[in-house]
Amino acid sequence: GSIIDYKNASHAITAELEVPAKGADGVIVAVGGSIGGWALYAKAGQLRYAYNFFGLTTTIVEGQAIPPGRHQVRVEFAYDGKGIAKGGGLSLYLDWNKVGEGRIDQTEPFVFSADETLDIGFESGSCVTTDYSSNRFNGEVNWVQIDVGEDANDLDHFLNHQQRLKIAMALH
After folding, report:
1. C-alpha torsion sign, points 153, 15, 135, 123
2. What per-residue confidence (pLDDT) applies to 166?
3. What pTM did the predictor assign?
4. Which of 61, 65, 70, 110 is deepest in the core (most CB within 10 A)?
């Protein structure tokens, strides 16, 4: 209940990262934990996404290496349709380029856990997957944006930080 409701719908998660020279490693953003949740992370430099279904099965979708510097990574989940707990196609993007895809066969319908949280740059509770090298991202996570439904197709997340600041200042 502490973030936008994206369950049972198409959605996208975008994050802007500062990746160190030694390469990306660790949790970028995660929700839930060992009894259900998802995580966007890097392992040995490679972009990855894990979906944990009730602690019964974990699906991992692999992308490609994230080079050092400032980058945007994105997950797009295309929900199969109306109703609850359906699956869907998942795509990983690095700076506007599709770098991985897979399928989540079934999703959890309502909540992942009563005591797990949304974590950015680390995972504080139980881990969504044992695939992490580290539960803390070794670079900087500048921002994360979650979009749902039609908004998941919106490309406004591709604004650079100067453009975002200009727009924010104009709104105040």
Report:
1. negative
2. 64
3. 0.87
4. 61
